[in-house]
């Protein structure tokens, strides 16, 4: 006899007023496990999304830009405009 048959036999032996409680409990157990499945699927999707993001980040071509040689000249000009002697 399978576990399903055993459970069905027990269910058939219950008085009618307890059937609703058993039905509610079955709904609760099904919902609880469905939530766990959905949560695990969302976690897998999140891991995959972050993995794709990190891969795209690793594949970026980052080349350093040339330093601005005029910075020091612009800074000196600004100081001179303010009346500072350098």
Plain-language structure description:
The protein has 86 residues and is an all-alpha fold. Helices cover 76% and strands 0% of the residues. The protein has a domain at 17-60. The chain is built from three helices and no strands.
Essential attributes:
rod-shaped, about 90 residues, mainly alpha, about 75% helix, 3 helices
Number of strands: 0
- Count of DSSP-assigned helices: 3
Give Rg in angstroms: 35 Å
Helix and strand pattern: HHH
Strand content: under 5%
Largest sheet: none
Low-confidence stretches: none
Question: Roughly what is the average pLDDT, rounded to an integer?
Answer: 85
Instruction: Determine the structural class based on helices, strands and strand pairing.
Output: mainly alpha
Shape, per Cα inertia axes = rod-shaped
Summary of the model, kept short:
By secondary structure, this protein is mostly helical.
Topology at a glance:
Elements (H helix, E strand, L loop, with lengths): L2 H11 L2 H43 L12 H11 L5
């Amino acid at each position: 006899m399978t576990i399903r048959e055993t459970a069905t036999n027990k269910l058939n032996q219950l008085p009618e007023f307890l059937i609703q409680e058993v039905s509610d409990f079955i709904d609760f157990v099904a919902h609880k496990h469905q939530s766990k499945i959905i949560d695990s699927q969302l976690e897998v999707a999140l891991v995959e999304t972050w993995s794709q993001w990190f891969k795209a980040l690793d594949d970026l071509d980052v080349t350093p830009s040339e330093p601005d040689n005029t910075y020091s000249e612009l800074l000196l000009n600004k100081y001179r405009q303010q009346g500072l002697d350098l």
